[in-house]
Amino acid sequence: MARVVVNVMPKPEILDPQGKAVTGALQRLGFDGLTVRQGKRFEIEVDGEVTEARLDEIRKAADTLLANTVIESFDVVVEEQAASAGVA
Q: Could you tell me the domains of the chain?
């Protein structure tokens, strides 16, 4: 079993009020020089092998449901591949 991660972020030209609020809070706490943009992370467990066809299916799901592509962009990353069966 593998985990595929879909990271969704506001496009650079879109205002990010949540990220701005977090940035301001960090500055008030003494964490200077940090700028935050807040997004979403979806972890998808995939049964079987992660093939290019499967990744295309996940990209389509992200484009259709997980991200609002008018204001957000996304990337799809294979995070981990489980060890083969038969591990003692």
A: 2-81 (3.30.1280.10)
